[in-house]
Every structure is written in C-alpha cells, then in structure tokens.
Amino acid sequence: MENTVTKNIAIVLVGPKHSGNIGSVARCAKNMGMKRIIVVNPRQIDIDEMKKMSTHLASDVVDSIEYEEDLKRVLSPFQFIVGTTARRGSSSLRSAIISSKDAGTRIIEMSRYNRVALLFGSEDRGLTNNDIKYCDMLVNIPTSKGFSSINLSHAVMIVCYEIFSAVIGPGQKYAPRLAASSEIEAMYDNLEDMFLKIDLIRDESPGYWMAAVRRFFSRRGLLSKEVKIIRGICRQIDLFGQGMTSGGRKNKNA
User: Fold this and answer.
1) Is 28 helix (H, G, I), strand (E, B) or coil?
2) How many domains does the chain have?
C-alpha cells in the first residue's frame, strides 16, 4: 500500500555495517508500502547479499537505493526529520523523545504536506549527537531492560509498521508545510554569525551556545515564511552594523 503520503517518506540509513541488513531494510520498507531508501556512508556494499536478504519481491527497492556521502546534503530538501535512538534522558542536542507507538500518527500528519526523513544509525553506534542535531523529533522503541539492542531492520520495521497503521487508521489532523532542513541550517548559520558579531556567544564554543538555540526552535516546526523572517532580521542587523541602514524610521513629528 503506497500512497501520496508514504511517497513523501524516505528511510535514511547512516553508516550501516552490513549489506544484508540493508537488504532486510528494503524488504521491511516494501512490506510497509515505502520504497525510497537513502544509504549514507555504508561500510559495505554487496548487491547480491542485499537482494538475497530482500527477496526477489523487494529487489526493485534495492535497485532504487540512493547512495550518498554527506548527511547534511541528503537532509537538505526534507522538512521534517525523525531520528531513532535507544538512548533516553536529556541532552542539549536532543529533542523530546517519544515512543514508536506514538510516532506513527505524528509522522503521517507531517508527511501529507512535507518531505519526511526517517534516520536510523549504524548497527553498533546508532545516531551520533551530530546526526541528531538535524532531527525535529526523536523516537525510542521500548524494549526489555534485560536486552535493549534491536537489529537495524527490526527497528525500521517497527517504526514503519506504526506509520502504516496510522495510514490505514482514522483520518489525521492537518499539519502545515514546514521549512526544509536546508532553510533551517542556513538560518542557524545566520544566527551564529550574528551572535558572534554582537558578542552574544563566545568564539571558542559556538556549538555549545547554538545547541540551546536549536533546542529552542525545535520545540515547534518552523514554517518557511518564519525562517525567512528570522534570516531577514539577521541580514538587517548585519547591514546596520556596517552602517548601511538608517537605524529606523525618523519620527515625522520631531
């Protein structure tokens, strides 16, 4: 079952170790009505092994896999990015973590008018903090405390199953079109540059300060229009600092 909603969803595997796992992910994706898989910096590529694990019914998904090297570039056209993590607790780089069961409906709401990327980390390390900083939402798959490690393809199947269930379930709420990751990252670059120029943050640790800024804006999805407003403010402040603006309108009654 593939429709216009699931067509907007891509599975992004970051640094997978084994070709067999990529093939198994392709099978899971097709089971749940999804076809687009992007593999970033794989440590092994064996097409025969991938097709063996995907079975011939999902070989078309294997054939259409996209291979990339730069995660930031891969994510740039997506408006909503979902990361998966086994870790719990707070971090200055992480958004609120929700369970996989609660994630399906939210992802479907967003995918109606936005391109959604589902990020899965490598089998041994998962997603790094640097990967997670791009995420608008983090998903945790509840497991037994005695053994919390989940195979990569199993994690993909669980998340995709929840999405599939949401697709065939009751109608979802409307979600607005959000700004793409490329727009968001450009906004953060503009803000960091402005903060440095006005001495709001320290030169030696901009990442620490920007993590808090990212956490602030990640509390809600930013619309493209809102990002343009913030970037416009940064641009005008920069021009003002260069003496290229008047510094505001003059009072006509003065």
Assistant:
1) helix
2) 2
CA-CA-CA-CA dihedral for 143, 116, 168, 122, to nearest 10: -30
The pLDDT tens digits of the residues spanning 120-139 come to 999 988 999 999 999 999 99
- pTM listed for this prediction: 0.70
E strand or H helix at 226: helix 224-241
Per-residue pLDDT tens for 76-88?
A: 999 999 999 876 6
> Distance of CA 232 to CAs 166, 226, 229, Å?
38, 10, 5
- The sign of the CA dihedral 187, 188, 193, 199 is positive
CA distance 25 to 5: 19
DSSP letter, residue 144: -
Residue 223 token pair: 């619309």
198: which 2 tokens? 């006005």
**Domain, as residue range, for 201:** 181-241
Tens digits of residue pLDDT in 13-25:
999 999 999 999 9
Q: Are residues 111 and 164 in the same domain?
A: yes
The CA distances from residue 184 to 65, 106, 108, in Å, are 26, 20, 21
Find the CATH number of the domain harbouring 146: 3.40.1280.10
Q: Which residues touch 233 (CB under 8 Å, ≥6 apart)?
A: none
